[in-house]
Crp/Fnr family transcriptional regulator
Amino acid sequence: MQADQQLRQHLLKTITLTDDQFAYVFSHFKPLSFKKGQAIISPGDEVDAEYFVLSGCLKSFYLNDALKMFILQFAMPNWWASDYNALMYQVKATITVDCVTDAQVLYLSSNDREKLCTELHSFERFLRLRTNKGYVAAQKRLLSFMNNDANGRYEDLLKLYPELYHLVPKQLIAAYLGVSRETLSRLTYKRKGS
């Protein structure tokens, strides 16, 4: 599917745009390609954009002082990624966004985002609703960590994002779930045995 049609379908799930309005919105996006393992945002970077994933998979993660990786998000096609704290507050990035696979994205600069929000109420509405859905998803994930053991978090992940398990290396799934690779192997084996 062409990039413009993919973005259009994504937007039209939430808002209504005329052909001219969509053409204007799309004119503010820039297509970019990244290779597997390539960083899009690194700690200390100034962040001036967010990325709409056309193909491939991105991950957003944080490395603590002990170099333990905490994965905040996987972004598959039709998902968005950035360091939103850095983007919103114009501070240096604290997380990394990189490519799990080769990826094609659409880049939307912060300035263009604000311009579109000012000029098109429907686009501002789309972003508000998308942000709300992202907040709800983050809250559900946090509650899952508070209420579920490793097996419960694993089952939740498989229910919500079954395609992720085949797309992402198992050590990254383990980091997302907050378990060791060995624990993930046991959970996988246990599930196959049931």
Observations:
- The chain has a mean pLDDT of 94.
- The CA atoms of residues 65 and 156 lie 29 Å apart.
- The chain has nine helices and eight strands.
